[in-house]
Design a protein that fits this description.
By secondary structure, the protein is α+β, with helices and mostly antiparallel strands. 25% of the residues lie in helices and 25% in strands. The protein has helices at 3-8, 63-68, 70-79, and strands at 13-23, 43-49, 59-62. The structure holds zinc ion. Zinc ion binds next to helix 2.
């Protein structure tokens, strides 16, 4: 796992909004795992983490991201998905 991903996931997840259908990565809208160009999967969801400074950034993620982060799986198991996001 990239170091950045491990650091990010210390933030609790507030909500996960699926994209229906999945969208291609383009411009600044890239997978949270793709900062080093190592992901070209379609984006399937928008993850809203909670930051201690009160900001609410968005992370765009692919299915591989979701299924490789245990905290994301735990969130989905407990809370499910929220309403689909509009890209
Ligand atoms: Zn990805």
């Amino acid at each position: 796992m990239p170091h950045s991903a491990a650091r990010e996931m210390r933030r609790p997840i507030l909500s996960i909004h699926p994209y229906v259908p999945a969208i291609e990565q383009q411009g600044d809208v890239i997978c949270s795992m793709a900062s080093r160009g190592d992901c070209d999967h379609k984006l399937i969801a928008e993850v809203c983490p909670e930051f201690s400074d009160g900001t609410t950034p968005r992370w765009w993620v692919c299915g591989e991201w979701l299924t490789s982060h245990s905290s994301a799986i735990a969130h989905i198991t407990t809370n499910g998905f929220q309403v689909p996001a509009v890209p």
